[in-house]
Amino acid sequence: MSRRTVIVGLLVAVLIAAVAAVSLPMAASDRDDAVTPTAPARPEPSSHGSAPSTTQTPDNPPSPLSGDERAALAESVSTAVSRHAPGSKVGLAVYDRLAQSIVAEVNADEQFYTASVAKLLIVTDSLRDAGWALPHGQRRDNLVALLSRSADWVASSLWAAGGGPVIVTETAELIGLEATTPPRIARQWEMTRTTPLDVLAVYDYLSTGMPEAAGEFVLNALSEATRVAADGFDQFFGIPAALPDSEWAIKQGWMRVDNGIVLNTTGTVGLRGRYHVVLLTLQPPSTSFATARAAVTAGVAALAPALTEEAG
């Protein structure tokens, strides 16, 4: 065989090998177009206003519950509350930020008294008035006490300084709340009215709408809620009592009114606040606070099987 033939043969072999190498699939880690998880865009607001949004969606996000599953879960919550306190009015809204869907709802667009849940509006107004700057010194201590110990005196002071009922109207406009209204008597911030869906929107705003540092300050303070509130009330009912092993950041509400007992448990639940949970109740006037706490705790316990621990 001639030398020329050998050289040509070698060149052909090299060319074939090069073409074959280009044709072989590359490992995902070696490709320029390898997929890297990115945070999704914030979903468009629903007809309700500011819709809760997600943090990061996995490649295979969990499937939302079916309509029948949501209805059954909602019924189990209502039944659990009523078993302890018959005749109670229940308002429920639970949102899964990972699946981007409602988990359960009952009377979700009906108004309930906020009691101390109104402090979420008060702190939002205070931080906005300060240009969203993080508080320091005594002001920081006061805001932490407002949220973690539910200090009424801080709420009353900020309410008066911020213009009273205008705090509710301006904060509702800021967040996009559709059915949150100021108290009829100006000084009574605790008599503000809201809906479970509006409270979901407040938690969505704290998580994704408020400037990040300010939102983290509020949620951190809520995650440090003390068992005994500033007024001596045991505020570990509902979310913290029914889900003791979960991560949570809560704002509770309690008070006695002419027509009953108001007891509300609200907050974020799960790793990185996957769920936003709102359970508002108006229980019969004869109900003791001990029974009312047990009723709300039973309601959240009925939700527990649906609140898986996969992170948001």
UniProtKB/TrEMBL annotation:
Any GO BP annotation: response to antibiotic
Region listing for Disordered, in residue ranges: 29-80
Domain of life the protein comes from: Bacteria
Biased composition (Polar residues): 47-58
Record keywords, A-Z: Signal
Signal peptide range in chain numbering: 1-27
UniProt keyword Signal, yes or no: yes
GO molecular function: beta-lactamase activity
Matching InterPro entries: Beta-lactam/transpept-like (IPR012338), Beta-lactam_class-A (IPR000871)
Protein name: Beta-lactamase class A
Organism: Saccharomonospora amisosensis
